[in-house]
Amino acid sequence: MEHKELNLLTESLGLHSNNNLYGRFVLVEDTVDTSAAFVLHHILKRTFSSHPSSSVIFLALSNPFSHYDRILRKIGCNLAAQRDNNRLFFIDLLMLQFPDEGKSNHNGFAAVFEKIERVIKALPQDNMKFVTIMIDDISFLEVAANGSSNDVLDFLHYCYTLTSEYGCAFVALNHRDIYLNEEKPDIILEMEHLADILVKAEPLATGLAKDVHGQLMVLHKQHGISPVKIHNFHFKVKENSIECFYPGTKI
Amino acid sequence: MADSIFRSLRDGALEGELAPTLTIKDSIASPFSIHIFSHILLQLSSHFAAQKSHNTGIVIVAISRSPSFYADLLKNKGLELASSSKWIHVLDCYTDPLGWKDKTRKSGNVNVPSEQIPLDATSYKSVKDMDKLFLAITDLGRGLVGENKSRFCVAIDSLSELLRHSSLQSVAGLLSNLRSHDQISSIFGLVHSDLHEERAAATLEYMSSMVASVEPDHHSSENFLSEKNFTQGKFNARLKRRNGRVRVLCEKFKVEAGGISFASVSAEDVTTVAGLLPKVQFNLQLSEKEQIDRAKVVLPFEHQGNGSPIQIYDGRKSLEESSSEGAPLSRGGKKEDSTLGEIIYFRDSDDEMPDSDEDPDDDLDI
């Protein structure tokens, strides 16, 4: 039962049969009230189990390795072992900060991008297709770039090009409410336009509830020429799993 | 709709006129402009592919989509890519817009996986420089159609990206240079209008002879449904003619697996109305006989008067009546007047006010 319910997220993302995220950009948006970090953890776990030669390049800006290691261990995935097997490339960017002198942001981001590309190129040719690039989270990139959203978008575009060049999956987390009330909500909209799949986590529209922690919307935008598809469901974060269900179906 | 837009893009401008320009606008609520863009691109390319003479071509400025996206698009349509190099060329501003990859490739001797794109593509590495971009586009076009009088069409897949990389002035400059270039027959481009200030969108609209905007279909925007496909939307187009006449078109479109189809709004509405009607149990329409009968019915008060003004008592004396009241004196006492009943009333005392507002029962002690 549990397993089937979990599949709602898996299914809506298109992870269930084969990992369909390859070649796409998944943007996960959350709010202060409802964190969507669990979506990243879920994708991370699925990625390692989906294909024997799959690998993940993780750009950590918000938490150290031990944090992810602990969480993933609870849901049944040993990150330390994956790292030792060269399947997880953990790039620690916690202290990332570019000098505040105008142009130099560019070189900084180019260097980070170069690091990612070097990892991909070092992989055997067959494994290149099964790389997932994950960023947690974009807002810290902006902090590192001294608030220059244009540079962040350039960086994201470059990461996005990897999805078509090598067929990688690109997953990034961002916070929605930090851009509220801004005159030009450029960066979040710009990213939404860029994304192929948009996952939005929001608090329950009807208020707080004990059994429902929030609602998720998974929006499949065009991939090639196809209709826009939308999934809506509720979720509950449990100690070592997530429960996803359609509104009103939980007893 | 799409036909008239397509025709003017295909035919291009008359000599000595600015090239017709189409701007396709969309927003995050209805991200279908790439569908429209691809639709037009496919129509144009199948037209050019069918032409024997090969004196026309398309230059795609790929900024937000990879060249392989366009290769797949053409392949899925069944166009032959082997001969495509004669009439289509991609200027690849997508893969390495700022030259980052170039730098790493120069510094380290890493093997570059040669991406197999069946389309001809030229990479371009400095998106921020609009003058260079203009030269690159025109050079490509000239390489495609030759130096002579033949012309080519330019497709820019994201003006929004250009606006992000560069100022509005320089993007407008690029567009106006492209429009006035004699070898360019037509231009079409995409813009996400919600990303820009209004003035940027307005500038682009001024510079284009046709503006198409994609809007969400409000019927299908119920917010919370567990699963839904968004396939429809409204397509509004504004076509400016040479003499300044403006034609506004409104259509609906539907995205299907095979592509996109257009339908006129009225036809759509008739079918939805027809689809709704059988659900009503009552007959809401009148037959012809019923309509005639209904017209014959005499409404209350209509039968009164017979030509003279109809008087409806509203509780007051009308002006007319009061003037005739004063008349009897002068008429010298007609007989009929004396037969009329009369009420003679004397007030008991002066302290009884006529029609006093006092409650007559206020002295009751209940």
From TrEMBL, chain A:
<protein>
    <recommendedName>
        <fullName>Elongator complex protein 6</fullName>
    </recommendedName>
</protein>
<dbReference type="InterPro" id="IPR018627">
    <property type="entry name" value="ELP6"/>
</dbReference>
<dbReference type="Pfam" id="PF09807">
    <property type="entry name" value="ELP6"/>
</dbReference>
<dbReference type="GO" id="GO:0033588">
    <property type="term" value="C:elongator holoenzyme complex"/>
</dbReference>
<comment type="similarity">
    <text>Belongs to the ELP6 family.</text>
</comment>
<dbReference type="InterPro" id="IPR027417">
    <property type="entry name" value="P-loop_NTPase"/>
</dbReference>
<comment type="pathway">
    <text>tRNA modification; 5-methoxycarbonylmethyl-2-thiouridine-tRNA biosynthesis.</text>
</comment>
<dbReference type="GO" id="GO:0002098">
    <property type="term" value="P:tRNA wobble uridine modification"/>
</dbReference>
From TrEMBL, chain B:
<dbReference type="GO" id="GO:0002098">
    <property type="term" value="P:tRNA wobble uridine modification"/>
</dbReference>
<keyword id="KW-0963">Cytoplasm</keyword>
<dbReference type="GO" id="GO:0000049">
    <property type="term" value="F:tRNA binding"/>
</dbReference>
<dbReference type="InterPro" id="IPR019519">
    <property type="entry name" value="Elp5"/>
</dbReference>
<dbReference type="GO" id="GO:0033588">
    <property type="term" value="C:elongator holoenzyme complex"/>
</dbReference>
<dbReference type="GO" id="GO:0005634">
    <property type="term" value="C:nucleus"/>
</dbReference>
<comment type="similarity">
    <text>Belongs to the ELP5 family.</text>
</comment>
<feature type="compositionally biased region" description="Acidic residues">
    <location>
        <begin position="349"/>
        <end position="366"/>
    </location>
</feature>
<dbReference type="GO" id="GO:0005829">
    <property type="term" value="C:cytosol"/>
</dbReference>
<protein>
    <recommendedName>
        <fullName>Elongator complex protein 5</fullName>
    </recommendedName>
</protein>
<keyword id="KW-0819">tRNA processing</keyword>
<dbReference type="Pfam" id="PF10483">
    <property type="entry name" value="Elong_Iki1"/>
</dbReference>
<feature type="region of interest" description="Disordered">
    <location>
        <begin position="308"/>
        <end position="366"/>
    </location>
</feature>
<keyword id="KW-0539">Nucleus</keyword>
<comment type="pathway">
    <text>tRNA modification; 5-methoxycarbonylmethyl-2-thiouridine-tRNA biosynthesis.</text>
</comment>
